[in-house]
Amino acid sequence: MILLGTYCFTTVPSTAPAYPSLPLGSYFDLHKPLLYSKPSKFTSLVINGGRRICDLFDLHQEQVPYEVAWSWQKEIVRDKRAQIEKEGDCNDTLIILQHPPVYTLGTASTVENLKFDMKNAPFNIYRTERGGEVTYHGPGQLVMYPIINLRSHKMDLHWYLRTLEEVVIRVLSSTFSIQASTVEGLTGVWVGNEKLAAVGIRVSSWITYHGLALNVTTDLSPFKWIIPCGIRNRQVGSIKELVREGVGHGRADLHHLNDASLIHITHKSLLEEFSQAFQLEYSYKSISSSMLYERK
């Protein structure tokens, strides 16, 4: 199915199949409403040590359909804009999850970077308002969606992008002893000639959404049907492949980890490094699967 529109969900055909049941993990409760709190003007957004509060929706074991997560982000952004207008500030929010297989196109995307007939696409396709070119999301890839008020951090998009990249670089170094870097003129995180993490953001009234995607145990074959990020002379890689190849000296213990364990330790490290980089303290939140799907 092809779902190409201009930044809205009204482009989804009415004949689209119902969304499959979302597996319920430890962060889902069917009997509780959506819980991302809106602090009143009497609530401090900074705790001891100067760290801001960040509402964390940890769905890293779940495969949330892209259109559901996209709509959810935009709803949170609208709420934060209204809260800032009324109260002057808001908590930050971080969502971490996986997606079922999907291709997404950024504002700079062209169909020339698709290697298939769009009338017979292997997976759903969405044109979004994030920056960047075409990319793939799928199981085994951890996706982080920070929705933060840059007015309370640093009103500098270059700084924000570089900080997101630095989070991934620190994760690869501290957890896997893999030395990664950025490439001048390109966005994302690289190990040699392979891109492990893609970054694409949107900012509305200095509130961020969209974010980064890190290939952990991802099946990389769907990337062969596109020119990822419009870059023709480089490849895509994953943590799993690099670990199996022995990249990362001194971490032979990692070679025997299964996919679930690799996802778990990567997820834990991403949360730790993101918290350190942006000086945030997490407030764990939950959402019911029924309310999540209402956001489609």
TrEMBL record:
Domain spans labelled BPL/LPL catalytic: 88-282
Pathway(s) where this gene product acts: Protein modification; protein lipoylation via endogenous pathway; protein N(6)-(lipoyl)lysine from octanoyl-[acyl-carrier-protein]: step 1/2
Lineage: superkingdom: Eukaryota
Family matches, as Pfam families: LplA-B_cat
Keyword Hydrolase found: no
NCBIfam families: lipB, PRK14345.1
Protein name: lipoyl(octanoyl) transferase
EC numbers, comma separated: 2.3.1.181
Homology family: Belongs to the LipB family.
UniProt KW keywords: Acyltransferase, Transferase
GO terms, biological process: protein lipoylation
GO molecular function, one term: lipoyl(octanoyl) transferase activity
Record InterPro entries: aa-tRNA-synth_II/BPL/LPL, BPL_LPL_catalytic, Octanoyltransferase, Octanoyltransferase_CS
